[in-house]
Design brief:
Layout lengths: L1 H40 L2 H8 L11 H10 L3 H14 L3 E2 L1 H13 L8 E2 L1 H15 L13 H17 L1 H4 L10 H12 L16 H10 L8 H14 L6
Parallel strand pairs: 1-2
Amino acid sequence: MLKHATNHTQNRCGTFEKHRDLIKIFQKSLKKELAELSNEILNSVWSNKIEQSNIESLGIKDGKQIIAEYLENREYGIAYEHLAYIITECEMELNVEQKNRMDRIADRMNLEPIKFLTNEKGTDFLFACKNLYLASIHPFDVDKRNLNEYKQIVELGKELLAQRGIQSFLGYLMESQYRVSVWASMIAIEYGKPKQDEILNLSGTKTIINSCLECIMQDEINSLSAEIIENKKKWKSKNVPQHRV
């Protein structure tokens, strides 16, 4: 009887420890997901926008720090709600992936999902860049400018420019994959009509034109053909002849 009771106690302790370990894993993954998502949403573009605005609401300008403190103290629900508060208060548009991640976090904590503004066209632009990259269609592949896929991404970029304004649109300069930043830079200069001395908020020191040109003219990870390199130079001479990079 004593042996049976001891075994029963040991089994209960083992189950408790296993349950406690699962809670730790759950909390750790939740903390990581919230931290990564808040850093992605409250990025340098957002920070510069807040600095230049008149927003004085409590907890917004120092929102990233507040969220980090909540996470450190394992107050994950409050961290989520504060991130949601900043998003809604600043009327920020999330892409579809970001909205889905916010909804999944709310579901994991049994919280009511909050309705956020989404910009599906912004996500479409990212996917279009990826598809063109995989199809080996480069922004400066002049021979392919008449392809429907090429025309569609240019039209989508122009629509986003008109909708967001050039400063917000050039948040795409943060995207290094699939030549997103190159497409955005080319479209911004051709159709965004940037002012000569307008500083890019994302940079804080460089003009929009110079920032875009640096992105366009820099070497890419994959070697480009001599023809595309030459096309870049011709494009620059035609669209911004007075600038040198």
